[in-house]
Amino acid sequence: MYNKTPGAYRNSAGVVYGHKEAEMKRVFYGTQEAAFMLGISKQTLLRYEKKKIFPRPKRNPINRRREFSIDEITKLKQILGRV
Fold this sequence. Notes:
two-stranded antiparallel ribbon
C-alpha cells in the first residue's frame, strides 16, 4: 500500500508501523485496527463486547465510532491472556 511517510509501512488494517512520529501521533484506534492488534477479527471483538467479555470502549462524540486507546488494547490483551 502506498505510504506518504518514508521508512514506514501500513499493515492490512491500515495501521502505520516503522515510523515513530506516525505511531506517536496516534491516540485512538478504530475497531478494525484494535482487532488486528489483538489478533482477532472485528466481528469477534464486537461479539465479545456484546456478551460483556470486553468492556464497552469510548465512542467518538461526533460520529459515535468506537475508539480504543493503547491502554484499553493492553487491557483487552490481558483479558484474552495474550500479554
